[in-house]
Specification:
By secondary structure, chain A is of the alpha+beta class. Chain A contains seven helices and nine strands. Helix content of chain A is 29%, strand content 15%. Chain B has a two-stranded antiparallel ribbon. The chains are: A alpha+beta, B mainly alpha. The complex binds iron/sulfur cluster (2 copies).
């Protein structure tokens, strides 16, 4: 049946449609606002990593280093000598002298709860976010390298040469110190650090240490794990098992 | 006397035009926004005077508190004020001679070092 619309019907329909659009549109606006982080991070969370050295192969570690380089853009410094080149993650072999058991470790900034690097920094450039991630504010860093000396894990490196084409999310420059950021730019978007993503097994678990339902929290409850140099009482955010 | 006045006026006028020509490099996207009549910044005079403070405020919020909004982000400035070389399809760095940031800084004689760490062209994937 062909019904012709009179003017009144037409206005009614149009009104209904516009209201519909307005509702949908406002819904979209709300979700877009919610998805950007406008709320400061709090100490209700503490981000951490659990690395199982029994499951972690050497290839895994190479993959992690590679993924970190790709994500953050370090490692292509052409003028620096080998000892000057940045290294945000290091591949370490540790040997138990009694048993000769060799373990492979991926060692990055341990995101200490009581970070010595922050204690010694004269400019407040070394800093810990409320959620436990330790960063360098390169706007304030004067390149004195006290933090590099204070860090028991040799986690930080100094940029020795002029750089360009940095990653958009990771400004880096000559004369400042840098270290693993736990991929803070990804975490803030609800994503996982690049090194964790690169490992196919369960060898590296990332999550909120305080969240009872998180995989990292639950695993830490049932397995034996350790902090490297736990004698220093730094309460690191990166934990290891199998060593 | 009149002759001097003519010379003086023509110098004045030509310097105004030179000024407009030399510092008109707004960047491609920014220029088209300007042409379309949309206003993005509060006002050019505020943004000219206040952009260091606005950026400083934003940088502290982003780095220390994890507040990652786009407002006043340096990424945003770069992606809007950058120009592309039409021949090889590559971006010019915003801090290079003749480009938006460096031109204005040069005019007012203020050096800046944002770009010794920050990327001078938009994101890799946009290239
Ligand atoms: S591992 Fe080193 S750089 Fe990282 S928080 Fe601890 S002391 Fe600082
Ligand atoms: S090198 Fe930079 S971050 Fe490290 S202690 Fe000195 S000012 Fe602080």
């Amino acid at each position: 049946m062909n019904k012709t619309l009179n003017r009144r019907d037409f206005i009614k329909i149009m009104n209904a449609t516009t209201t519909g659009v307005a509702i949908v549109a406002s819904g979209i606006t709300l979700t877009t606002f919610a998805s950007v982080n406008e709320i400061p991070v709090t100490n209700k969370k503490r981000w951490g990593l659990l690395i199982d050295t029994n499951k972690l192969t050497e290839t895994d570690i190479d993959g992690m280093v590679n993924a970190c380089q790709q994500e953050q853009g370090w490692g292509t410094e052409t003028h620096s000598t080998a000892s000057q080149k940045p290294g945000w993650i290091k591949k370490l072999k540790v040997k138990d002298k009694a048993t000769n058991k060799v373990s492979n470790l991926a060692l990055m900034c341990q995101h200490c709860e009581e970070p010595p690097c922050v204690d010694v920094c004269p400019t407040n450039a070394s800093m810990k976010r409320e959620d436990g991630i330790v960063l360098v504010d390169k706007h304030l860093c004067i390149g004195c390298r006290y933090c590099m000396m204070a860090c028991p894990y040799d986690a930080r490196s100094f940029v020795h040469e002029t750089l360009n084409n940095q990653k958009e999310h990771m400004p880096r420059g000559k004369g400042t110190v840098e270290a693993c950021t736990m991929c803070v730019h990804k975490i803030d978007k609800g994503e996982t650090p690049a090194c964790v993503e690169s490992v196919n097994s369960e060898a590296v678990i990332f999550g909120n240490l305080y969240d009872e339902s998180s995989q990292i929290n639950q695993t830490l409850k049932i397995i034996q794990s350790s902090q490297i140099r736990s004698d220093l009482n730094l309460n690191t955010g990166v934990r290891y098992s199998g060593i | 006397m009149n002759r001097f006045l003519v010379v003086f006026l023509s110098l004045l006028v030509s310097s105004v035009f030179a000024y407009i020509d030399e510092y008109a490099n707004l960047g491609e996207q920014a220029s088209s926004i300007k042409v379309s009549g949309k206003v993005f910044h509060e006002s050019p005079s505020i943004i000219r005077k206040m952009h260091p403070e606005l950026l400083r405020h934003k940088r502290n919020k982003t780095l220390r508190k994890g507040i990652r909004t786009n407002e006043y982000s340096l990424k945003g400035c770069v992606s809007c004020h950058v120009n592309k070389n039409k021949i090889n399809n590559q971006y010019y760095s915003v801090d290079k001679k003749g480009q938006f940031c460096s031109d204005c800084h040069k005019k007012v004689g203020v050096s800046f070092d944002c770009f010794s760490c920050h990327r001078t062209v938009p994101r890799e994937s946009l290239l």
